[in-house]
Amino acid sequence: MEYDFTLEDALAFNEYHFRRSPAGRRARLRHMFLPPAIWMGLALGFEAFVGGDTNHSFAVALAAVSAMWILTAPLFLARQIRRSVQRMYGEGQNRALLGRHVMTVSSEGVTDEGPGTRTQTRWESVERIARSMDHLFIYLNAVAAHVVPARAFRDRGEFERFVESVRELAASAAVGDARGDH
Length: 182
Fold this sequence. Notes:
The structure is a single chain. This protein is α+β, with helices and mostly antiparallel strands. The protein folds into two domains: 2-90, no CATH class; 99-179, PH-domain like (Roll). It is 55% helix and 20% strand. It has four helices and seven strands; from the N terminus they run βαααββββββα. It has helices spanning 7-20, 22-50, 57-90, 156-179, and strands at 2-5, 99-105, 109-114, 117-122, 128-131, 135-139, 145-149. The strands form two sheets. The protein has a four-stranded antiparallel beta sheet with strand order 1-2-3-4. It has a three-stranded antiparallel beta sheet with strand order 5-6-7, sandwiched between helices. Helix 1 packs across helix 2, helix 1 packs across helix 3 (57-90) and helix 2 packs antiparallel against helix 3 (57-90).
């Protein structure tokens, strides 16, 4: 199949990966709960320091800010990730990544030809297969993947059949590898 790999596709992969990877999950939890924990620790420390004989508005204000942070942090983090990826891709011309790609999937593996590049990956080397609503991700390692947009296909049904074929080919290679077949 042939398709244009765009910045939006790269963003979709990075957002998907950050939402579902263990490292991304830990980073999200840290981002969401560490600042409020520090603020609440400050509030408790202040309350202990003044002996509870004063107006509790400082502690209440920090509790309110903490609650607002927990509610809004995921939105801000997603926007921050998007901006960071856009800046990274904006640093160079990315000729070898963005642009027209031709991908061939066979029983041997995946071949991806892009502007000035050609990569071949055997199924045995594929880390995992994942998908979002609009993309298929053929993970080459923990942080990189071939990204196939659904728009590369005539319709949703063709995309779904492709996803199923890729999963079957990858599973066959894993079964063959477990038996020692290559």
